[in-house]
Every structure is written in C-alpha cells, then in structure tokens.
Design a protein that fits this description.
Length: 170
C-alpha cells in the first residue's frame, strides 16, 4: 500500500466515522465538533488529490468560517448540557430509506461513469491569477457580489435563529 493510498484510507475512515457521529449525536455542540472533523478531513482529501486551492477554500471557509458560525450560534441560543430528543421509529425508517436510496443512486452513478485516465493534451490549466481576479471582480463573471450577498444572508439567518431561539421570561 502506497502512502497516498494509506492517507486516502485514513481520510475516508475519518469522514465516514465522524459523519455518522455528526448525525447520530444527541448533543448539538458535539455534533458541530464532529462536523468540523469531517470538513477538515475533506480538506485533507483535496490536498491529497492536489486540488490545493479547493482545499484551502474548504479549510478557511467551511472548516474555519461556517463551523465557527454554527458553534457561535449554538453557544448563544442553547444550553450546552441540553440533549436532543430521541427520534421515534416513524422518523427513523423514512430517514434510513432515503439514505439507502441516496447511497444506491450514488454507487450506481459512480460505477456507470467512465472516468478518463488522462487529461486531453490540448487543454490548458487555469492560471491562479485568473482565479484570483475572478474572485475579487464585480463584473459579469466575478464573485465579489455573490459573496457579499451570501454573507448578508448568513448574518440574517444567524440573527433570526437567535431571535427565534431566545426564550421569553414573561
């Protein structure tokens, strides 16, 4: 087994184990921490595949920003010691069937897809300068405006969640 295969197996195991722990944990802060491990391992998988830019975005935006936002919201709106209620059988069976159907569709799609072994000789790689300019551009194919809109949406969602979750004493 090569070192790349070993790291792939480790990252895959971490992603699978902590994904299951994320959705089965009854303590919400632990679930958010497990989600952090999943997102970091996904970033490690991107580094392993040599998608360095995507890995950096994964670690900074999702593992860094979104999980911190989730944990911050949890700490502001709930008690740390609270446990979520145990789901009843009427919720477990449809959830299991939906997950199984999603797994079957995913495995079927992966097995039927013809993955090319090499990149075509005539294709050019995108320069990092082009990516950086498109990220900060406000023109037609720029991402600055959508990024700002999403940040306002996340802020509004967090403020709304805090207002809805705040308990009234009257």
């Amino acid at each position: 087994m090569t070192p790349n295969q070993l790291m792939f197996a480790i990252f895959s195991a971490v992603i699978i184990i902590f994904s299951i722990l994320t959705v089965t944990s009854r303590r919400i802060l632990r679930a958010a921490t497990y989600l952090l491990f999943v997102l970091v391992a996904t970033g490690g998988m991107y580094f392993l595949l040599r998608f360095n830019f995507l890995a950096a975005i994964q670690l900074t935006l999702y593992a860094g920003g979104i999980v911190v936002l989730i944990i911050f919201s949890i700490l502001l709106t709930s008690h740390i010691g609270d446990k979520l209620e145990q789901p009843d059988l009427k919720k477990i069976i449809p959830a299991f069937l939906a997950a199984a159907a999603g797994m079957v569709i995913t495995v079927f799609t992966i097995l039927k897809h013809n993955f090319p072994q090499e990149v075509a000789a005539g294709t050019d790689r995108t320069d990092i300068r082009v990516i950086a300019k498109s990220l900060i551009s406000t023109e037609k194919f720029g991402y600055a405006l959508p990024f700002e809109v999403i940040s306002i949406l996340l802020l509004a969602a967090m403020v709304g969640a805090i207002i809805l979750a705040k308990k009234r004493n009257d």
